[in-house]
């Protein structure tokens, strides 16, 4: 059985915060942020909009896009490190709101690689015939764990949600191969042990450049394809320089890589589904395209998928 993404949705909060807005708040410049990260602006959710609200909006859109009913969903997986509260989970909160009364529900914590972990977990349940449809959401309200006194991290992150319905697709399409991995020894480079996220940017950068390229190459190989058969790359939107390094390693031209970091910053687990949805809406990803999704995050964790759209 072939399994793939059959519907996508995304939600971005309305409030736009530009680099110039941040210049007024801390010792930074638009020039520094743009050249070091590729970010021009990001979205922050208002105080009365929580993670589950954004997840619900994206999920609703994905369900409509897949042309299914909420009660047909067998499992809801929400990848987030910024849930409304430790429990109940965001997954159960949206289960109730969506009316997905037949769905089991849980959150997944794999930081920025969370959406990849979610999609691959979902694939197993669909492939084995256990559930016909699994809803996977990547969602973060990173603004609530961002220390606006720390310019090293405060300029990087944004809020948002992306969602996908995983289900059966026609033979030969959908997910062709995947890779998931973790290296707990790097946990000290990116963590939250108090109110705010903390990061050793340089260490994360080095890891990400190496891992994104390697994982992308591995899934292309596992799918029995070569780099020149890849049509499009959707990397986790963490830093344009990290993204560029993986694009160049695959030998793809600039227009064949997803880029939403300029508009949305790093939205962690939400960045890949948000970007993929934008690319589909803009016609950059078309039917039968071979697409590589690749992400990395705190843990350290990583994941990549090679799929035929
Ligand atoms: N404005 C102005 N100057 C700044 C800022 C800022 N916002 N932030 C740091 N600087 C300064 C530093 O203090 C440093 O000054 P110094 O040399 O006087 O000490 C200088 O700029 C250079 O700092 P570096 O850390 O060397 O800058 P670098 O080019 O490495 O870029 C960055 C930093 C953007 C954080 C980069 O290391 C990076 O992208 N790392 C990966 C981060 C990442 O991907 N995180 C998320 C991963 S997973 C997840 O999404 C949760």
Automatic annotation (TrEMBL):
**Residue ranges occupied by any Beta-ketoacyl-[acyl-carrier-protein] synthase III C-terminal domain in the UniProt entry:** 221-309
Q: In which pathway does it act?
A: Lipid metabolism; fatty acid biosynthesis
Which chemical reaction does it catalyze?
2-methylpropanoyl-CoA + malonyl-[ACP] + H(+) = 4-methyl-3-oxopentanoyl-[ACP] + CO2 + CoA; 3-methylbutanoyl-CoA + malonyl-[ACP] + H(+) = 5-methyl-3-oxohexanoyl-[ACP] + CO2 + CoA; malonyl-[ACP] + acetyl-CoA + H(+) = 3-oxobutanoyl-[ACP] + CO2 + CoA; (2S)-2-methylbutanoyl-CoA + malonyl-[ACP] + H(+) = (4S)-4-methyl-3-oxohexanoyl-[ACP] + CO2 + CoA
GO terms of molecular function: 3-oxoacyl-[acyl-carrier-protein] synthase activity; beta-ketoacyl-acyl-carrier-protein synthase III activity
Keywords associated with the record: Acyltransferase, Cytoplasm, Fatty acid biosynthesis, Fatty acid metabolism, Lipid biosynthesis, Lipid metabolism, Multifunctional enzyme, Transferase
Fetch the InterPro entries from UniProt: ACP_syn_III_C, ACP_syn_III_N, FabH, Thiolase-like
**Domain Beta-ketoacyl-[acyl-carrier-protein] synthase III N-terminal: from-to ranges:** 106-184
Q: Where is the active site?
A: 112, 236, 266
What GO biological process terms are annotated to this protein in UniProt?
Answer: fatty acid biosynthetic process
Q: Where in this protein does the record put region ACP-binding?
A: 237-241
Localization of this protein = Cytoplasm
Where it mainly occurs, coarsely classed, is: cytoplasm
Ranges in a coiled coil: none
What is one cellular component GO term in this UniProt entry? cytoplasm
What EC number is given for this enzyme?
Answer: 2.3.1.180
State the function annotated in the UniProt record. Answer: Catalyzes the condensation reaction of fatty acid synthesis by the addition to an acyl acceptor of two carbons from malonyl-ACP. Catalyzes the first condensation reaction which initiates fatty acid synthesis and may therefore play a role in governing the total rate of fatty acid production. Possesses both acetoacetyl-ACP synthase and acetyl transacylase activities. Its substrate specificity determines the biosynthesis of branched-chain and/or straight-chain of fatty acids.
Family statement: Belongs to the thiolase-like superfamily. FabH family.
What's the subunit arrangement here?
A: Homodimer.
| Domain characteristics, as noted in the entry | The last Arg residue of the ACP-binding site is essential for the weak association between ACP/AcpP and FabH.
Query: What is this protein called in UniProt?
Result: Beta-ketoacyl-[acyl-carrier-protein] synthase III
Task: Give the species this sequence originates from.
Answer: Paenisporosarcina quisquiliarum
Gene from which the chain derives: fabH
């Amino acid at each position: 059985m072939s399994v793939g993404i059959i519907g996508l949705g995304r939600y971005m909060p309305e409030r736009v915060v530009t680099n110039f807005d941040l210049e007024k708040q801390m010792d930074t410049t638009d020039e520094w942020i743009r050249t070091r990260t590729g970010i021009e602006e990001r979205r922050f959710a208002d105080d009365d909009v929580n993670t589950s609200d954004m997840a619900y909006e994206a999920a609703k859109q994905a369900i409509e896009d897949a042309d299914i009913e909420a009660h047909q969903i067998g499992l809801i997986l929400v990848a987030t490190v910024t849930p409304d509260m430790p429990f109940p989970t965001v997954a159960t909160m949206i289960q109730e709101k969506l009316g997905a009364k037949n769905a089991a529900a849980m959150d997944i914590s794999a930081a920025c690689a969370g959406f990849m972990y979610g999609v691959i977990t979902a694939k197993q349940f669909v492939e084995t015939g256990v559930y016909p449809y699994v809803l996977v959401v990547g969602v973060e309200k990173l603004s609530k764990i961002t220390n606006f006194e720390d310019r090293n991290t405060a300029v990087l992150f944004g809020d948002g949600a992306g969602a996908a319905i995983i289900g059966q697709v026609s033979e030969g399409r959908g997910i062709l191969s995947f890779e998931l991995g973790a290296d707990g020894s790097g946990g000290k480079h990116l963590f939250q042990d108090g109110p705010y996220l903390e990061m050793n940017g340089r260490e994360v950068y080095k890891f990400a450049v190496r891992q994104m390229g390697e994982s992308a190459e591995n899934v292309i190989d596992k799918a029995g394809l070569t780099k020149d058969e890849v049509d499009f790359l959707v990397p986790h939107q963490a830093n344009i320089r990290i993204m560029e390094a993986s694009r160049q390693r695959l030998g793809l031209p600039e227009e064949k890589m997803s880029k939403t970091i300029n508009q949305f910053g790093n939205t962690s687990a939400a960045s890949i589904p948000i970007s993929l949805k934008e690319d589909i809406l803009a016609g950059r990803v078309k039917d039968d395209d071979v697409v590589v999704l690749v992400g990395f995050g705190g843990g350290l964790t990583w994941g990549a998928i090679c799929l035929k759209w």
